[in-house]
Amino acid sequence: MIINNFLIRYCTENARVYRILSALALLFIVFWLNSCSDFTEIDTPVSQLNTAAVFEEKNTAYSAMANVFAQMRDNGMLTGKTTGIQKEMGLYADELTWYGNSAQSSANFFTNTLIPTHPTLATWWNNSYSQIYAANAVIEGVAASTKLLQADKEQLTGEAKFARAFLHFYVLQLWGNVPYITGTDYTYNSMVKRLPTAEVYAKIIEDLESAIKLLPEEYISQTRVRPNSYVAQALLARVYLYAGMWPEAANSASAVLNKTDIYTWVTELNAVFLKGSSATIWQYAPRTPTRNTDEGTTYIFNGGPPNSVALTNSLVNAFEANDQRKAKWIRSISKGSITWYHAYKYKKTGSNSPQVEFSIVLRLAEMYLIRSEARARQGELSNAKDDLNLIRNTAGLGNTSAVTQDEILAAILHERQVELFSEFGHRFFDLRRFDALDRTLSGVKADWNNTDNLLPLPQTELNLNPNIGPQNPGY
Amino acid sequence: MKNISLNKGIRAMLYSLIIGLFLTPLLVMARIPLPKSISQQQNITGTVRDSQGVLPGVTVSIQGKSIGTITDYQGKYSITATATDVLVFSFVGYSTLNIPIAGRTVVSLQLQEDATNLQEVKVNAGYYSVKESERTGSISRITSKDIETQPVTNVLAAMQGRMAGVNITQQTGTGGGGFNIQIRGQNSVRRGGNSPLYIIDGVPYSSEEIGNGMSMSVMSMNTNPLNNINPIDIESLEVLKDADATAIYGSRGANGVVLITTKKGKKGKTRFSASVAQGTGSVPHFMKMMNTEQYLAMRAEAFANDGITEYPESAYDINGTWDQTRSTNWQKELMGGTSKITNINGSISGGSEETQFMLSGTYGKETTVLPGDFGYNRANVRSSINHASADQRFKISFTGGYGIQNNDQPSTDLTTEAWRLAPNAPALYDAEGNLNWENNTFENPLRYLKGLSKSKTHDLVANTALSYNLLENIEIKSSFGYTDLNHHESSTFPSTMYNPSLGIGSETSRIFYTDTKRNSWIIEPQLNWKPTLGVVKTELLIGSAFQSQNNTSLSVQSSGFSSNSMIYNPAAATNTSILGFDESVYKYQSFFGRANFNLKERYIINLTGRRDGSSRFGAGKRFGWFGAVGAAWLFSREKLLQDNTVLSFGKLRASYGTTGNDQIGNYQFLNTYTPSNANYDGVMGLVPSRLYNSSFGWETNKKLEVAIETGFLKDRIFLTAAWYRNRSSDQLVGIPLPGTAGFTEIQSNLNASVENRGVELTLHTLNVKTTDFNWSTTINFAASKNKLRSFPDLESSTYSNSYVIGQPLNIVKVYHYTGIDPETGIYNFEDVNGDGILTEPEDKQIVKDLNPAYFGGIQNTVRFQRWQFDFLFSFVKQQNYNVPRTLGVAGTMNNQSVAIVDRWQSPGDVASSQLYTSGANGTAENALYQYAASDAGITDASFIKLKNVSISYEFSERWLKNVNCKATVEGQNVFTITGYKGADPEFAGYGFLPPLRIITVGLQFNF
Question: Can you give the residue ranges of the SusD-like N-terminal domain (chain A) (predicted)?
Answer without folding.
Answer: 105-241
